[in-house]
From TrEMBL:
GO MF annotation, one: RNA-directed DNA polymerase activity
InterPro entries recorded: DNA/RNA_pol_sf (IPR043502), RTL1-rel (IPR032567)
Species per Swiss-Prot/TrEMBL record: Tanacetum cinerariifolium
Highest rank taxon of the organism: Eukaryota
The protein's name: Putative reverse transcriptase domain-containing protein
Keywords, alphabetical: Nucleotidyltransferase, RNA-directed DNA polymerase, Transferase
Length: 81
């Protein structure tokens, strides 16, 4: 599915005309459901090089990620995975 995120109005608009449009208000501070993911003892993340990108594409990606971070759509992760 393809979607467009309108950060200014906190809307996520799906490309499929039959899919419902919904409003997303960022990551909630309190969740109704808490969950954990149990890891296999001794398992480590797989190290893999990131996809190659042209410098202009990398800059655009960084700019978009920064905007999504500032507007609360995403948050930093401390997970090694």
């Amino acid at each position: 599915h393809h979607a467009t995120i309108d950060c200014r109005s906190y809307r996520v608009i799906f490309g499929d005309i039959h899919a419902p449009e919904f409003i997303y208000h960022g990551i909630p501070l309190v969740r109704e459901v808490e969950f954990n993911i149990e890891f296999i003892p001794g398992a480590e993340p797989i190290s893999k090089a990131p996809y190659r990108m042209a410098p202009i594409e990398l800059k655009e990606l960084k700019d978009q990620l920064q905007e999504l971070l500032e507007r609360g759509f995403i948050r930093p992760s401390v997970s090694p995975w």
